[in-house]
Amino acid sequence: MDIVLQAIAFVFQWQNLAALLSGTIYGIVIGVLPGLGPSAGMALALPLVLKWHPATALIFMGALYKCSNYGGSLTAILVNTPGDASNAATILDGYPLCEKGKGGVALGISASAAMIGGLVGMVCLILCAPLLAEFALKFGPAEYFLTAILALSIIAAVVQGATIKGLIAAGMGLLLSTIGFDVITGQLRFTFGWAPIEDGIPLIQALVGLFAVTQALVLAQSAEAISRLTKLSGSFWEGVFTYFRHPMAIIRASAIGLFVGILPAVGQSSAGLLAWAEAKRESKHPETFGTGEPEGLLASETSTNACMPGDLVCTIALGIPGSVGAAIFLGVMIIFGIIPGPLVFAEKADVIYSLFVALVLSSFVVFILGATVARHLAAVTLLPNEIIVPSILVVSLLGSFAIRNMMPDVIISLVFGIVGYIMLRGGFTPIPLLLGLVLGEMVETNYHRALMISGGSYSIFFGSVICKILILLTILSLVGPYLGPFWKTLTQGEK
Amino acid sequence: MFKSARILVIVVAVCGFLWAPAFGADFPTKPIKLIVTAGAGGGEDTEARALAPFLEKHLGTQIMIENQTGAGGKIAFEKFQKVEPDGYTLITYTFPKSVIMEFQGKTGYRTKDFTPIAAWSRSSQLLVVHADAWKTFDEFLKAAKAKTLSGGLSGRGSTTHLMGLIALDELDIKANWVPYEGAAGSVTALAGKHLDFTICLSTSAVSLINAGKLRPLLLFSDKRDPYLPNVPIPKDLGFTMSFIPTLRGIEAPPNTPPAIVKILEDAIGKAAKEQGFLDVAKKRQIVLQPVSSKEFGKAVADVYTKIAKFQDMLKQ
Which chain B residue has its CA at the smallest distance from A188's CA? Predict the structure, then answer.
């Protein structure tokens, strides 16, 4: 307890508070800028902080890393362009809310989610990081494979209402995820000699296409402008109140985000998507998801914000980074002489707990910035569509270029734009495609690895306790929706 | 505003044109672009960014770092093959990944053609096991001969894979290779006891080794690692083995004039000795070893013959 009090006292020194505030603001700006994620942000800021006190520098970097996600959600909500892969699900309900003129509400929800999701994640990180890290180590290839299958089973809920078309889209996503270098066999698959897709379909570039470009095409085609409301309805604080009216949804989304974050081999982009899909399944009105449903935004945002502290669990407690951003944060820690690993809590407790205290504080800083500065950004959505949509197109394609400094990435976005447009015309939703694309590689490579380790024996898939639990959950997730009505028929008889 | 900007551009262009004939004699006269073939913040990028300010000091010009990721650097290498060899565009990467790529499939470049300038650090692969498993390399070897063990790799066709193949060949054992994407995956799986051993760079496993969760058994090098002084090398145990050293250095495009190479080589050599760079290297446990243009060139030639021997196995 002493160490925590010391850490609090340390963080409240003026230079550390300044580092916290500037790191938070810098992180949000980096998140807002297209094509710049937390990784590039930290690399660019490194020379600046190199001479600082290690703890102060880490507070700056940690705040930057943690809050860039909020910046990314601002652009996802307001201009339909995710700042980073972790904001993939934010656009699903965030942007439609803006179209309804409820930009303020959406910003209120996202700021609350940044605070609550971040806080829940941080509390778990502080209280039981070493324990959670031990848990993560129990996940081998077989467990990862079953986790991915469980996640895929959620698609069944997403596609409700248009099952066949949804499954077709999910299948397409899975097929697309096989493109590129196969990690296991070392073969290039379906690249047709085109180097830009050798690493697989780049996710943000595909997202820009499926959402921003598709929307521009829809607008270009309709003769009259799709005019939006001329006035904003609903304020930032209405969004905040909406958020806190759903405590159960918040808990579920935080748990999913934390779980995804803790497992080093599960991509952060899936945190938001899975929480969104789960919220849709639990909802009494699933049909409103994707059309500007506050609960959908709540779930995806809370989950992504809880995911980041989860990601730091293995990074700090084991020295194993769970994402590119975490890998860079790990590098930064090493440069300042703090070697993450099981020993760090004993050897460098002062620095680590100062960092934790600062990150908890930064959750509040983000909310305050959201409530005072960012909420005015909702006015952007009042611009007429003829102006805003082409601007979105320019900004998002620029972002798509800037990620790897490559023109072919813009072509990828345009192709996905056309695909998205055709899907929309045919009554398909792109969300199952996105889930397939995100989860496909995890299913495939871990299936392969598990069988390589077991020497071809399938018993590895139900050997451990975790495997058995995952299989049970998957079965429940698939048949669950039918159990309720079935039970009713049994007890009340056929009507 | 725009008018003045245009005038500035013209002035700069004219100056550049006027200075151009003096080329070679007083190189460099404009900023140098340094291409990093991995994303911002990784090992490659961090070393380049740590060295850049000191390189700027000794060259008297600005160094602009550009990250060209994509297909593990292949896209950057292919572009680099056709770059003007004027010394103003350089590349840094973890050698020999470009050579391995050439053996794995068709590439539009040849590492042999590039002009090596200098390298500053080398790293060696490490054989790591779980601390609950074998205590010494001999115990490991006995177990590996009795049954086929599962070994983690940081990627099929990576330098760890190549080193693993060479080691197995010379130790006369077989292994069941399980490729991951990067060392983080294979080290985690080893710590969770899902694998029997892993081959990785020492920096990827250092925290878990220090914490006593993993145990390093053998360093694939002809010299012990100063940061891991207790880990034996094959020579200590009576094995002769050839190694794939991993070098971090800078290369210029094909056919760069020797005068420019000399200027750059000297500057890199001096920059890598600056205290500021040494400090970063120590914290990241980078083993520094200056490699001249000539030695770098020899390493490139050597690695082709070594990899050719294992080409079929890499493709399996």
Answer: B105
The pLDDT of A124-151, averaged and rounded, is 89
Contact present, B137 and B194 (Cβ < 8 Å): no
Q: What is each CA distance from A374 to A28, A130, B286, in whole angstroms?
A: 10, 36, 43
Over residues A374-412, the pLDDT tens digits come to: 888 877 777 777 777 788 888 888 888 887 778 999 999
Range of the domain at A270: 2-481
> How many angstroms away from the CA of B6 is the closest CA of chain A?
24
CA atoms of B96 and B119, how far apart (whole Å): 12
Judged by CB atoms closer than 8 Å, whether chains meet at B284 and A331 is answered as: yes
Count of domains observed in chain A: 1
Contacts with B10 (C-beta within 8 Å, 6 or more apart), sequence order: none
Domain B125-237 annotated CATH 3.40.190.10: yes
Going through A102-182 in order, the beta strands assigned E by DSSP cover 180-181
Q: Where are the domains of chain B?
A: 31-122+245-315, 125-237
For domain B31-122+245-315, give its CATH number from 3.90.226.10, 3.40.190.150, 3.40.50.300, 3.40.50.1980.
Answer: 3.40.190.150
Nearest by CB to residue A264, choosing from B78, B184, B315, is: B184
Q: At what angle do helices A103-137 and A247-262 cross, to 10 degrees?
A: 50
Determine, yes or no, domain membership for A495: no
ipTM associated with this complex = 0.82
Q: What's the pLDDT tens digit per position in B179-232?
A: 888 788 888 899 999 999 999 888 788 888 888 899 999 999 988 988 889 999
- Residues in chain A closer than 8 A to B41 (CB atoms): 39-40, 42-43, 324, 327-328, 331
Among B223, B24, B45, B218, residue whose Cα is nearest residue B134: B218
Question: Rg of the Cα trace of chain A?
Answer: 22
Intra-chain end-to-end CA distance of chain B, in Å:
61
Query: Nearest-CA neighbor of A441 among A184, A223, A120?
Result: A184
3-class SS letters over A30-56: HHHCCCCCHHHHHHHHHHHHCCCCHHH
β strands within A333-453, DSSP E: none
Q: Is the peptide bond before B96 cis (omega within 30 degrees of 0)?
A: yes
